[in-house]
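Design job #97: recover the sequence.
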């Protein structure tokens, strides 16, 4: 019997690359995004077997919407072996600008509450079964705050801490919580960045390494590993030196500058 993976944010980028890699590895797919038409076009372009995938329309920022998608997956395809909470947004913000407070609220709604809501329908049945993988996609940006990236960095730090908390809650249940922290991955999300992106990795390469980490059940993995080393070194820097290093660094686009 084939395994089943449930992936949010599957219409592009990391989510789409991971969906394809999982399909190649023999998984059935439960794919979730707001843009179902784009997922359908992608599935047809890749000639996916219609018996091996289902598409679910949901906005992870809308809790009833993403919970309903999870419940529909349980009813139509059964309990997944792997749930990947991948959907996320990355927008620059300036706290001095009142309209950017709404950007922060939306970022947290998608990247944090949406992640927990994605896991919610599956935790109790996975506990009952005694197995499963809950995968939270964080970022190396969650390791240290970057100017102009306050909402994104804070949200991804929240993903890391949340998944660590959930891992402790599920200890001994047979359900593994895996935190993936991508560095710079070549996707539509990063193509408009206006600053250097060291160790930029193609999405298919990331997907290959991510699936290995998921199947191994590791608790935390930075991909690529070089970014993990760089992030740890930045974490060790005294605040004064860290601040000087980032002075004048180009910032992520705000909504008004996209």
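Job complete. Output follows.
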């Amino acid at each position: 019997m084939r395994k089943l993976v449930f992936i949010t944010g599957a219409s592009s980028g990391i989510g789409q690359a991971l969906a394809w890699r999982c399909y190649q590895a023999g998984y059935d797919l439960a794919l979730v995004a707001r843009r179902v038409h784009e997922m359908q076009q992608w599935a047809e372009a890749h000639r996916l077997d219609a018996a091996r995938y289902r598409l679910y329309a949901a906005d992870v920022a809308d809790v009833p919407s993403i919970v309903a998608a999870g419940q529909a997956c349980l009813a139509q395809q059964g309990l997944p072996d792997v749930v990947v909470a991948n959907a996320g947004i990355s927008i620059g913000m300036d706290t001095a600008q009142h309209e950017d407070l709404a950007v922060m609220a939306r970022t947290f709604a998608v990247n944090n509450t949406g992640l927990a809501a994605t896991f919610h329908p599956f935790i109790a049945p996975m506990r009952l079964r005694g197995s499963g993988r809950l995968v939270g996609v964080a970022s190396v940006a969650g390791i240290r705050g970057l100017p102009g990236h306050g909402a994104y960095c804070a949200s991804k730090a929240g993903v890391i801490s949340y998944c660590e908390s959930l891992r402790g809650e599920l200890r001994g249940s047979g359900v593994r919580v895996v935190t993936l922290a991508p560095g710079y991955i070549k996707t539509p999300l990063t193509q408009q960045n206006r600053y250097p992106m060291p160790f930029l990795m193609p999405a298919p390469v990331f997907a290959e390494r991510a699936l290995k980490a998921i199947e191994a059940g590791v608790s935390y993995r930075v991909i690529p590993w070089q970014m993990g080393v760089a992030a740890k070194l930045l974490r060790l820097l005294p605040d004064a030196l860290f601040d000087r290093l980032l002075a004048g660094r180009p910032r992520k686009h705000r909504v008004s500058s996209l």
